[in-house]
Amino acid sequence: MTETDPIAYDVVVLGAGPVGENVADRTRAAGLSTAIVESELVGGECSYWACIPSKALLRPVIARADARRVPGVGQAAGGSLDVPAVLAHRDAMVSGWQDDGQVAWLDGIGADLYRGHGRLAGPRRVTVTGPGGEDHVLTARHAVAVCTGSGAQLPDLPGLAEVRPWTSREATSEKYVPERLIVVGGGVVAAEMATAWRALGSRVTVLVRGKGLLTRMEPFAGELVTEALTEAGADVRTGTSVESVRREGDTVVVVTDTGDRLEADEILFATGRTPRTEDIGLDTVGLEPGSWLTVDDTLRVTGSDWLYAVGDVNHRALLTHQGKYQARIAGSVIAARAAQVPLLETDAWGAHAATADHAALPQVVFTDPEAASAGLSLAEAERAGRRVRAVDVDLSSAAGANLYADGYRGRARMVVDLDSETLLGVTFVGPGVGELIHSASVAVAGEVPISRLWHAVPSFPTISEVWLRLLEAYRG
């Protein structure tokens, strides 16, 4: 192993996923020299094993489901999916798991890429162990940004390694369709991958330890998604935990806490995420290896004046779009502090404060039906001590919904702060609502008064007419 002389940069970024790329983009745009370190593929989890491949798998599923609900098209869309074509499209969307295009983008912005494992080696110092065992020592004049993301969390079950379980990575990159698939979990990954693989031909059984799917959203979201999965042929079992798992030849055998014995060809554990901070040298700067990193609203790690944690690693919002939002804030903050510009806008909604991941967090679950939300649920708002009112309407009350799909099924809820008469949260569940949620994000983030929303006229006949139905229901 050889070690090079230290190379000085203004900023060093650990992790070249979408979050790290956005930090590097902002710091380079500000004229700061920036190094970015990546041990796997440039583009990260989202590009190759999460957002992009999962949505590539789900898009044909949802398109076929939508088409089946349109009179005059349903019969033509009634056949099975072309599985090889779906998987080939997925592979194309991830560039065959090659990162040449994203490396070229980094070159284009002038960031220096170091391939290898990066570790902190004391304040403002990073050591990168390259593929050939060589070490590069990088120093940062102004900031080191930890953007290493999160990985799948597996339960502590005896013999689990021998079972070779799927995680979200295998679920989005697998090359064949298992005849039988068990999905363990009740969150977004579990719901989406159960939807995708059931449509691709697997007999899917979903084991949910809690009361239902998507419990962080309004209750009706999980209820409608569960109903649709069941109608599609999936077996969704709530209040069920895995007691043991083993592989007998090519078969996975699962025993549940209810005493049931289940068999499958593969098993997917979608049971949470853990920070990728175990081996990045946190101990050299007084932090706990493997921990989530606590930050302020400028994304700077508590107690530090140079270390930033952006994206999943700070555990504020484990969503790519929120991580990129944080990255834009962090990059601007680092540049301002490097230029010794006072941060005058660190209050709520200021240019240098990441507040949307507290108040206006948007999310879309790409199941059939889609579930989308922005801001707080009713339960979250009540726990926060807000004086609120929930307004519920059937989405089919919007004229555009019934044009979109025959027999359209969906629900909408807005949570109104009764003291300010602004929206704290909005949830839509139904076909096509993913493209509707940004209007809710704007209303929540902008704290738009109900009196003004009344004058934001939805186009007829679109699903967005549901806004009029919600406001009418609120006014009574």
Automatic annotation (TrEMBL):
Cofactors, names only: FAD
Domain Pyridine nucleotide-disulphide oxidoreductase dimerisation, residue spans: 362-467
All copies of domain FAD/NAD(P)-binding, residue ranges: 9-321
UniProt keyword terms in alphabetical order: FAD, Flavoprotein, NAD
Coiled-coil intervals: none
Pfam families xrefs: Pyr_redox_2 (PF07992), Pyr_redox_dim (PF02852)
InterPro entries: Class-I_Pyr_Nuc-Dis_Oxidored, FAD/NAD-bd_sf, FAD/NAD-binding_dom, FAD/NAD-linked_Rdtase_dimer_sf, Pyr_nuc-diS_OxRdtase, Pyr_nucl-diS_OxRdtase_dimer
PANTHER family the UniProt entry points to: DIHYDROLIPOYL DEHYDROGENASE, MITOCHONDRIAL, DISULFIDE OXIDOREDUCTASE
Annotated family: Belongs to the class-I pyridine nucleotide-disulfide oxidoreductase family.
Name of this chain's protein: NAD(P)/FAD-dependent oxidoreductase
Origin species: Streptomyces macrolidinus
